[in-house]
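Hey, quick one: can you model this chain's 3D structure?
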Amino acid sequence: MNAFTRLATAAILLSSTASAAQSAEQIRILAPTWLGFAPVHVGIQNGCFTARGLDVSIKFEDDLANVMAAMARGDIEVQMRSVGEYQGRPRDKDTPGIIIGTIDESVGGDGVITDDKITSVADLKGKTVASELNIPSRLLLQAALKEAGLSLADLQIKDIATADTAAVFADESIAAIATYEPFMSQAVLNSTRSGAKVLLSSKDKRGLIVDAIIARNDDLKANPKKYAEFLACLYEAVDFIKAEPAKFAEMVAPEFGLTPAEVTGVVESSLSYTSLAESKAYMGTDGKLGTLGAIFDTVMALNLENGAADNKLVAEEQIDNSIISTVTGAE
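Sure thing. Here's the predicted structure for all 331 residues.
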């Protein structure tokens, strides 16, 4: 093969690659920095998305306002976050985004940390508690307070960034912090406070904190098959994670700036990825809502009560199970 032929062949290959990339169905995702969304990274790295004709990318963005703005502009097709955060202001019934699946449940990854001066949530009455706005652990705290006959109004709330948990916890005038992993464990382990501990976590309130897959309505309507393929790959990734946890940890650790051991530690203590069967149980099928409907309503009431949401949303209008109903796989 002469030089000209080699160049011509290379040009054809590059052109074919570019054409394939252009023809691939694009799904751009924004999600918080949370290992619950790691199945996306697995689907990218194992080639499942590419094999199904999808061009999937994901970036971390913790700020809900930025994510909502990006979806409204059409800059992204998907976001992922908890049902409670999804409902947060300024969302109303017409805000772009609809829930098409679940990806994980928090089973210890969100919680409230304190020291030996506090033995129950009732002891927090009148005290200063720090928390970022509209995060799952604030809902968790609110639910626990309600059971004790109290509300967030009975506390002095100090707004913080969750990433500052350890620094804020060093201030003993802060009685407790609502936070999440890995910041929660890091703050407790490195604290000099007497009896530093996790007072309450999502493992005590199973089903309250569920992370959802949220698609942009117009793109979902125009490209339903794209989202069926996307969900199929995500749940294949979940099956892989459960079957090969060590390989999974090695695969995604660099994406989150963690070691494989840290990935394993967080996953084993903090979250449970939802399989296709579990997600279908949450979502329901063929138009009939599953258990996520009741969870949505419970969390909605809490969000309206604490001011995190301004508008009452109806589960039937915010959850679309038409796509997941078509997905088949290991159930």
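One thing worth noting: Confidence is low (pLDDT under 50) at residues 1-23.
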